[in-house]
Amino acid sequence: MVTMLGKAGCHLCEEALAVIARVCAETGARYEVRDLTTADDKEKEEYWDKIPVIFVDGKQHDFWRVNEQRLRAALLEERA
After folding, report:
1. What SUPFAM superfamilies does this protein's entry cite (predicted)?
2. Residues 1, 29: contact at Cβ < 8 Å?
3. What string of DSSP letters covers 26-62?
4. Pick the CATH number of 2-79 from 1.10.540.10, 3.40.50.970, 3.50.50.60, 3.40.30.10
């Protein structure tokens, strides 16, 4: 499961989501997008300067930009 923590109007979030959607479609993984503006104060403090933040199975995987090959490898490794 891939989770992207971002916000509306963020061009990096839009780019990251395109990569996530493509890789998840290829690997059969699920993904969700969470809006950081509605997160609790602790998450906002920790992640605001890093958006988009990408998690794979609840563990931080990337931030700012998504490396497509690295994400694909992580998802395929998870299924192995």
Report:
1. Thioredoxin-like (SSF52833)
2. yes
3. HHT--EEEEEGGGS-HHHHHHHGGG-SEEEETTEEEE
4. 3.40.30.10
